[in-house]
Structures are given as C-alpha cells and as structure tokens.
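Readers outside the structure-tokenisation community will struggle with the description of the input data as it stands. Showing the layout once, in full, would remove most of the difficulty. For illustration, here is how one protein appears when written out as sequence plus structure tokens:
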Amino acid sequence: MSKKILCLCLWVAAATVALGSLLPPPRLTVFKPKHPITTVDSIAVSDLHFSIDVAELRVHLNVTLNANVTVKNPNRLDFTYANSSAFLIYRGKEVGEAAIPAGEIGGGAAQSLNLNLTLMADRLLSDSDFYSDVISGTLPLQTNVKLPGKLRLLIDISIVSYASCDLEIHLASRSLDQKCHYKAKL
C-alpha cells in the first residue's frame, strides 16, 4: 500500500513539474507591467483677454487653457504617480505651468485630471516672434504632460507616461486647433 502511495505522489509531482514548465509564471502574463495611457481629452481656451495699445506699442494678453487629461491604468495593480507638472511651451520656451498632485489609479481604472494652464504673458512679450504671431492672428503653443509613477509587483517598476499637444490659438475667433502625441516608458 505504501508503494502505491509513493508511486502516486511521484506521478503527481512529475505532472506538477511538467505543467509548471509548460505554463509561464503569472507575473510574466497576468501581472506583466503595461504602460499607463495618458490622453488629452480636450483643451479649451477658458479665459482670453487680448488687446493692442497702439499709443504705447504694447500688447496685453492673458490666456488660460483648461485641459482635461485622462490617465488609464491597464494593469491589474495600482499605479501610483508622483507630483508632476504640465507645461505650456511657446517656440521652445516654457511660458506656463500647471501642477499635477500625486495620486493613485486602481488596477484597470482611469482617472480624469482637470488642469488650468495659465500663460505667463511677460515671458511672451520679450520674444520678437510673438508680435508677428499676434499680427497673423494665430498663437502656436505646445503642452507637455509628464507623469512619472510606479507599479509594485515584487519590486517597484518605474513607468513614465507622456502626452504632448501642438496647439494653434486663433485670437480673433478665440478657437483652438490641436494635434496630440502620446508615449510611455518602462
């Protein structure tokens, strides 16, 4: 009787080893880290005050952009991200910023971030291209969002998600054209 039990145990052990070698470990399949997806859902001009003072040869500009950004976590694990910022760029120079507070997105969930990017007009007024853009009626801008974070499996896995949008603000109609690009790095 004990030989039969020993033989059965050996067969079960051999079958377990055989199946274990054929099936990949769950950490390489189910828990394999995937990139969080950052998308810019909309960007709108929420405040625009524009005037030209011909007597003093000055341009007065105040622009606030409202950006709705969604971060989707396709992982089964929580994605924890650190404090970050969204930047407003004019011809390669930073002219605006919005803080993104640290947070956590559950596995398979998405989180909406509402960002208000305020244009720092004083940085624009010193740029000679700005005046020609104002005269043309179109202001080219770019937004950059970088969201660094991590997933915790057995160790912390660092992930950075990026979103970049090229914008054209049409000053007369107060409208906006946008084209966005997304990427992520493990």
Notes: The first strand starts at residue 37 and ends at 53. The beta strands are 37-53, 58-72, 79-81, 84-90, 93-100, 103-105, 110-119, 138-152, 156-170, 175-185. The longest helix spans residues 2-22.
